[in-house]
Amino acid sequence: MTYIKYHALFVNDSKSLMNIFPPIYDDIYYHHSTIQFEPQSTDKIEIGKITKLKIIGQLTTSKVDVLLVENPKSINQYPHITLSTTPDTPPVESNSEIKNNLDKIKPINLIIDTIEGIHNGKSVITSIPTQKS
After folding, report:
1. How many CB atoms lie within 10 A of CB 58?
2. 30, 40, 89, 104: which could form a disulfide with 85 (CB 3.0–4.6 Å)?
3. Does domain 6-125 have CATH number 3.90.1740.10?
4. In angstroms, rounded to a whole number, what is the distance separating the alpha carbons of residues 103 and 94?
């Protein structure tokens, strides 16, 4: 089995998302909503599956700027897309920032296109190579 750093829904058009929600902090992400970090099984991974992802809120704190999403496959308590963070804040800290600032979330209603895939520690994989016979 290929090493999987994380399984996620990858944003199809992160540039458009960036135009709607310009970066607030220097470290910029915008690319995915994590389903699971280092999954032990590939049973539920549907590489290449196109999904409409509903954005339901935005939270900006002194460390992170995130969009909360309805990602039913995510094992995160608060599925989200990290938009940007301060240079000394790793993106994983978005989870605790959301949990500690639920009262500061601004409601949003927006649908974006995503594609399911994996990150292997080096690159994003959203399609399975076809074998030539």
Report:
1. 19
2. 89
3. yes
4. 15
